[in-house]
């Protein structure tokens, strides 16, 4: 095994030398009192803070950076500094590309070497499933212009001579990968920021963040209090890293989902043959190897990491002693891949604090509770990789109100208040994210940690009826049903580490393993039976986790006019599908809006003056939509209130050809097209039987809307009445319980959009084929960009694809037109009624306009794990072109109705 240098004198000298380099006096830092005001104050002088300062000052913003000690003294200074190219997510690929551009251009900007080394990177696969994952990355890279090569073991060994070709199956090589020196990069960034007018204050701890409550009762940042004075500002960026939660508490935010861990690597003795070799990631054994000169830096992610309660305020350039009982597994893995490393010594060990989050994504964006407080932290040991790209987006976010990219998966608004108020949820979820950092990313991954954070009222009833749950934004919702089984999500057992015993009941874990594939799920036929039950008879979907909001107040109508793209000047019983846009015309949410008049005072029909609106949006983005509405109210100083009643109401949706007959058994309300038209709502009474007046009756709001493309209703029931209503419906002959896996398949088959997948904040409604939702008159937010796109055309366009080959597609597969890559699928699934794979994506034309002729004239292929499959492009879904099924028009025999092309343009949906 490795020879470990235990001489404490040598180690002390190494540490002191590093400290000396980083403590040397910087002419860029000032020692005098701080300025009295600034446009933006950045707290934290690590790589995230330096990148943010650089990007803001580059755009002419008067920005100040405050560091309580020395620049890089927190977690930045000890990072390995690896920068890769390929990730299983298009956003991350874009951010990595931007980071590489920033780092590679710093030397030219500053005139000094900035620490960027472009030595390439290589992913090692030891298994067939890992090879399939790498083939997906390779395919996505083709679509996004990121070069990569598939290498056999012998070809890989030529690039990295220490590799043993017999222990792995293949490698994926990315020539644009490299490393960045953290100290050099930060110095270069602040040098340029200073030239652009930015100010940097080292040894300037923040004592408090001042905020006030405005006339609408919302918190607003007003100043930052330091030990050298107060800086007035309306914008603060929290770049505190592992100290980020402490910075947030200054502004009255009780918690951020950031947990510090000890993270380590070792520096090996020289091996001259690796000079200029690429960096290595061996995901199958949780290992990485960084090449620096003639030395290997070896590190990884272990299953039993050290989690820290908190990091002391006065910790600077700190290193912990390495725990070889924990870290030793990485040495064994490195030796198995590179046998020569078993025979060389170790120069030094590096073990420092790093911040990790519950889903292994950074925490960015404006806090929903304090206007003007932005976060840019929680980088999960990937700060050097992402922070340069994220710095660009943060600057755009602060200056223009929204980032250029769709940043929702990094946005703090992806977390709910309920999640962030639970310390155990943050700790166990962050632990699982750390442990699974290098695990294969499957399309239908579900976490084991942080579960059961939020239930709807009928959760136990669903479990008793065989529901297998999945988690979205802390809510448990049914993925599919296994009738006759009772599968409970177990308490997180920490993988049997840290003295926790493994769960005795592992049935849920074993069911999840059925989705550990890039082929069709083990549960494919089960999900298909639920989808076809909806198409051919009727299915009952629990959609209770949806966000449910009331918009009321004297300025509710003005707020709605600004926020929603659709025409809401309709009768009070209408349900309107609408978008909410940002100032750049990007889609922040798609929602259904029910126009209301004051009701009887119940949860589903509250009392209020004037016109009000009942807004239903995706559950996983409900906080995002709520914050967007509140920002509009704040910015325009409107007297309006948004009330979240998501917990107080359940949604039971009955959809399918038989849905009208089934619901009619429980209500005396008319359900015909004349009595209850499509896209209307009303309060109805439900009972065990509509014919027996002695049965207990429950009132609810019924919406005639659908996300499956079938005849159907959503029943919005007060949670206190949800159990008896569910019991009555679920026991009805001809009605089958169905889950979200079936529903998302049905929605894609119909061609309905799913927000944050095929409809995002970086998509214009005209690009997405949703121009019909945007009124041509009015001053709704983003209108000018919609008008411009209508007039001038667009450079990308939403398209729908079907494949005749029975292959599994999930999204992120490359789209080829006439042999050239023109985009990638945003979402893919199997259409059980059409009986073929379907996908949607946006087609580009090398920056030129994309017209209908351009779309229709091409020959298309979809690349799935390296293999291209002939695809047919449709401008709309090849299912029910005229929307007849939603009207209940199924022909003489609805069960043999033939599918045909099109999309109902009055309905949409959110997951």
UniProtKB/TrEMBL annotation:
<dbReference type="InterPro" id="IPR006076">
    <property type="entry name" value="FAD-dep_OxRdtase"/>
</dbReference>
<feature type="domain" description="FAD dependent oxidoreductase">
    <location>
        <begin position="39"/>
        <end position="397"/>
    </location>
</feature>
<comment type="similarity">
    <text>Belongs to the GcvT family.</text>
</comment>
<feature type="domain" description="Aminomethyltransferase C-terminal">
    <location>
        <begin position="796"/>
        <end position="879"/>
    </location>
</feature>
<dbReference type="InterPro" id="IPR032503">
    <property type="entry name" value="FAO_M"/>
</dbReference>
<dbReference type="Pfam" id="PF16350">
    <property type="entry name" value="FAO_M"/>
</dbReference>
<protein>
    <recommendedName>
        <fullName>Sarcosine dehydrogenase, mitochondrial</fullName>
    </recommendedName>
</protein>
<feature type="domain" description="GCVT N-terminal">
    <location>
        <begin position="458"/>
        <end position="776"/>
    </location>
</feature>
<dbReference type="Pfam" id="PF08669">
    <property type="entry name" value="GCV_T_C"/>
</dbReference>
<dbReference type="InterPro" id="IPR028896">
    <property type="entry name" value="GcvT/YgfZ/DmdA"/>
</dbReference>
<dbReference type="InterPro" id="IPR006222">
    <property type="entry name" value="GCVT_N"/>
</dbReference>
<dbReference type="InterPro" id="IPR036188">
    <property type="entry name" value="FAD/NAD-bd_sf"/>
</dbReference>
<dbReference type="InterPro" id="IPR013977">
    <property type="entry name" value="GcvT_C"/>
</dbReference>
<feature type="region of interest" description="Disordered">
    <location>
        <begin position="889"/>
        <end position="911"/>
    </location>
</feature>
<dbReference type="GO" id="GO:0005739">
    <property type="term" value="C:mitochondrion"/>
</dbReference>
<dbReference type="InterPro" id="IPR027266">
    <property type="entry name" value="TrmE/GcvT-like"/>
</dbReference>
<feature type="domain" description="FAD dependent oxidoreductase central">
    <location>
        <begin position="401"/>
        <end position="452"/>
    </location>
</feature>
<dbReference type="InterPro" id="IPR029043">
    <property type="entry name" value="GcvT/YgfZ_C"/>
</dbReference>
<dbReference type="Pfam" id="PF01266">
    <property type="entry name" value="DAO"/>
</dbReference>
<dbReference type="Pfam" id="PF01571">
    <property type="entry name" value="GCV_T"/>
</dbReference>
């Amino acid at each position: 095994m490795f020879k470990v240098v235990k001489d404490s004198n040598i180690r002390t000298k190494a540490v002191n030398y590093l400290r000396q380099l980083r403590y040397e006096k910087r002419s860029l830092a000032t020692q005098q009192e701080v300025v009295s005001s600034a446009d933006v104050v950045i707290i934290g002088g690590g790589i995230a803070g330096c990148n943010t300062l650089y990007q803001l000052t580059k755009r002419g913003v008067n920005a100040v950076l405050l560091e309580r000690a020395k620049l890089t003294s927190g977690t930045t200074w000890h990072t390995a500094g690896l920068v890769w190219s390929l990730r299983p997510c298009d956003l991350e690929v874009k951010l990595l590309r931007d980071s590489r551009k920033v780092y590679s251009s710093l030397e030219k900007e500053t005139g000094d070497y900035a620490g960027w080394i472009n030595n390439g990177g290589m992913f090692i696969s030891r298994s067939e499933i890992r090879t399939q994952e790498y083939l997906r990355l390779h395919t996505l890279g083709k679509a996004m212009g990121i070069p990569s090569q598939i290498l056999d073991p012998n070809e890989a060994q030529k690039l990295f001579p220490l590799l043993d070709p017999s222990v792995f199956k293949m490698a994926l090589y990315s020539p644009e990968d490299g490393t960045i020196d953290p100290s050099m990069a930060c110095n270069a960034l602040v040098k340029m920021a200073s030239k652009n007018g930015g100010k940097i204050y080292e040894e300037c701890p923040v004592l408090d963040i001042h905020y006030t409550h405005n006339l609408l009762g919302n918190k607003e940042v007003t100043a930052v209090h330091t030990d050298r004075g107060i800086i007035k500002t309306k914008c603060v960026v929290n770049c505190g890293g592992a100290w980020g939660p402490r910075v947030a508490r200054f502004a009255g935010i009780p918690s951020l989902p950031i947990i510090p861990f000890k993270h380590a690597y070792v520096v090996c003795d020289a091996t001259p043959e690796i000079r200029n070799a690429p960096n290595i990631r061996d995901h199958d054994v949780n290992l990485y190897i960084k090449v620096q000169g003639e030395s290997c830096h070896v590190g990884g992610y272990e299953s039993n990491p050290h989690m820290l309660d908190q990091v002391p305020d006065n910790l600077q350039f700190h290193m912990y002693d390495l725990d070889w009982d924990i870290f030793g597994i990485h040495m064994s893995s490195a030796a198995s891949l590179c046998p020569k490393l078993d025979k060389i010594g170790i120069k030094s060990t590096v073990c420092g604090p790093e911040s990790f989050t519950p889903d292994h994504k950074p925490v960015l964006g404006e806090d929903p509770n304090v206007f003007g407080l932005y976060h840019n932290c929680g980088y999960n040991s990937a700060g050097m990789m992402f922070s340069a790209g994220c710095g660009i987006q943060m600057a755009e976010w602060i200056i223009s109100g929204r980032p250029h990219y769709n940043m929702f998966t990094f946005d703090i608004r992806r977390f709910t208040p309920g999640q962030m108020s639970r310390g155990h949820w943050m700790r166990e979820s962050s632990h699982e994210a750390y442990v699974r950092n290098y695990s294969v990313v499957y399309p239908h991954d579900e976490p084991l940690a942080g579960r059961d954070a939020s239930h709807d009222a009928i959760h136990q009833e669903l479990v008793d009826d065989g529901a297998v749950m999945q988690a979205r934004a802390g809510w448990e919702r049914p993925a599919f049903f296994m009738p006759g089984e009772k599968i409970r999500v177990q308490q997180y057992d920490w993988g049997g580490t840290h003295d926790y015993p493994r769960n005795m009941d592992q049935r849920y874990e074993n069911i999840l393993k059925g989705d550990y594939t890039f082929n069709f799920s083990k549960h494919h036929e089960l999900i298909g039976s639920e989808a076809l039950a909806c198409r051919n008879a009727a299915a009952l979907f629990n959609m209770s986790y949806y966000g449910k909001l009331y918009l009321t107040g004297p300025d509710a109508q003005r707020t709605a006019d600004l926020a929603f793209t659709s025409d809401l000047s309709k009768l009070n019983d209408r349900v309107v599908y609408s978008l909410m846009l940002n100032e750049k015309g990007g889609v922040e949410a798609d929602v259904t809006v029910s126009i209301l008049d004051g009701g009887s005072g119940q949860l589903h029909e509250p009392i209020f003056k004037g016109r009000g609106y009942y807004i239903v949006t995706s559950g996983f983005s409900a906080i995002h939509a709520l914050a967007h509405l509140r920002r509009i109210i704040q910015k325009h100083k409107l007297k309006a209130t948004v009330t979240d009643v998501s917990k107080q109401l359940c949604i039971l949706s009955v959809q399918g050809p038989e849905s009208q007959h089934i619901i009619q058994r429980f209500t005396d309300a008319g359900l015909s097209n004349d009595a209850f038209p499509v896209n209307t709502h009303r309060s109805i009474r439900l009972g065990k039987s509509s014919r027996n007046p002695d049965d207990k009756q429950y009132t609810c709001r019924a919406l005639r809307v659908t996300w499956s493309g079938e005849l159907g209703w959503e029943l919005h029931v007060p949670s206190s009445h949800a159990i008896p209503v569910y019991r009555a419906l679920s026991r009805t002959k001809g009605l089958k319980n169905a889950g979200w896996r079936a529903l998302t398949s049905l929605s894609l088959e119909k061609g309905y959009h799913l927000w944050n997948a095929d409809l995002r904040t970086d998509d214009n409604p005209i690009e997405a084929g949703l121009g019909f939702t945007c009124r041509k008159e009015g001053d709704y937010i983003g209108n000018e960009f919609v008008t411009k796109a209508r007039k001038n055309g667009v450079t990308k366009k939403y398209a729908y694809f079907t494949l005749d080959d029975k292959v599994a597609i999930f999204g992120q597969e490359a789209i080829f037109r006439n042999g050239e890559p023109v985009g990638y699928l945003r979402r893919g699934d199997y259409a059980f009624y059409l009986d073929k794979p379907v996908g949607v994506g946006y087609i580009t034309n090398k920056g030129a306009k994309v017209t209908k002729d351009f779309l229709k004239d091409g020959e298309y292929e979809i690349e799935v794990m390296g293999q291209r499959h002939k695809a047919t492009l449709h401008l709309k879904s090849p299912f029910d072109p005229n929307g007849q099924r939603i009207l209940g028009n199924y022909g003489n025999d609805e069960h043999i109705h033939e599918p045909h092309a099109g999309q109902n343009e009055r309905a949409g949906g959110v997951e």
